[in-house]
Write a structure and sequence with these properties.
serine/threonine-protein kinase; kinase; Heat Shock Protein 90; transferase; alpha+beta; five-stranded antiparallel beta sheet; single chain
Length: 135
Amino acid sequence: MTTPTMAAVSAQRRFPGESEQVSQVRTWVDGLLPGDCPRRADVAVVVSELVTNALVHSVSGMGGSFAVRAAIDATSVELSVADQGPRPIPAAREPDASGWGLAVIVAELVDEIRTTITPAGRTTWCRLTWPNGRS
């Protein structure tokens, strides 16, 4: 007996560069996931961190916008967040108070990650996988 395979889903959406959009993106991506996605909680954390990073560290968070793409199939989800490039003056932060999202939290949860920088901005892409379609 074979297990039915999930049809691939791919969606992209642009959001305004406002902090309340973190929860909007999380809800939108969650709605794209299959009901039995075994990494739902990890996906929520990862997309929240990627969006927060775009808002805090790029022009997107200074009244701009950012784009989120999600591609989902039976064994993985690929997420990318494209921002509008670095702020002219880096965001101030307390030492040891923040800055761990991308380097530690996201890197620990994803199976692959990469960042591409172009004159138009920065895109961070990652993939989360699970075995045999479902765990």
